[in-house]
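not sure who needs this but someone in the group chat was asking about MFS transporter from Ferrovibrio terrae so here u go. i didnt clean anything up, its just raw.
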Amino acid sequence: MPISQDRRTLVVIALGTAQTLGWGSTYYLPAILAGPMAADFGVSTGWIYGAFSAAMLLTAFIGPGVGHRIDRFGGRNILTLSSLIFAAGLALLGAAPNLVVFVAAWLLIGFGMAIGLYEAAFATLTAIYGKSSRSAITGITLLAGFASTVCWPISALLDAEWGWRVTCFVWAGAHLLIGLPLNRLLIPRELGAHATAPAATAESVDATLFSRPMLLLAFAFAVTWITSTAMAAHLPRILEAAGATKTVAIAAAALVGPAQVAARILEHTLLQKFHPLLSARLASITHPLGVAALLLFGAPAAYLFTLLHGAGNGVMTIAKGTLPLVIFGPAGYGRRQGWLVAPARFGQAGAPFVFALLLEWYGQYVLLFTSGLCVAGFAAMLMLRTASSEAHASS
């Protein structure tokens, strides 16, 4: 039975809200709480980001299997489980008496991230709506684009009033009271016909894993995600290193969310009629442009930098969901997506820790490295035009 447009809108709102909570309480958490956590345990922030990196590394191993399961059975049960795991992991994090338990808590959260963030949500939508998933994917990213804007100030306020441990407990409770009902009650069981089509077999996915389009996409996604993860973990500190006050740094960093949403609205309206490759290419160069402004003009360009970075990051998030769909089709999307983003996950795993060290050594000039990564990703996107044509010709 086809799912009505009203139900589709409800699904997008539910997933978008749950994703906002999921990203804001996990991926964006160290940017605000790494300092207090390190002070509590008497270690450097590098230890905190090392635990976070271990969590990210775990997602690279789990992702392909999760995507394959969503292809076959849908994502409702997996997203429901992610809410429970997030709650358990954050509660354990807040109660951790030592670093061993602290790292174990982050590993549990990492498992939740592997089964509960964008890749799982995109695969869930594609399993339900097939080729028409592009607008739904954009819809949930529009809502979740506010994750940093909403959750960074909340985390900072909670930490200032009650400490980082209570902050973790509050986020754990939010997953039980908000995320769990949304994922369990509002995500439909129904799957599209493509989900059981012969083309959705593992063999057909394996045949494309080392194709030129897959390799170029994997590289482009990896370098952009390394940059995105580094900025999510360290953006306020980088802006302070560039000369901004702490207040200005947090205020400027909070603009990433609105910039992401504004850029996604632009992609959903003006750029929707074009191939998503155009959006991806434009998004690849916004971070380097922002870096140039910040390094040339210093603190006064902090807001411009975060707006440009946020805009590019927002559109690339959509591209990571839509480019594989457009190039390879919906059959086997989840499993293919899991393999496609695995290199990015490995890069993300090391990014917070490595950039914590680079930031201590080089200050704001660490941005030269992220800028170079994005330029390399842009080059891969330019090369992808011929590769995508080949993929279409062979499909």
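also The two ends are 28 Å apart (CA to CA). if thats useful
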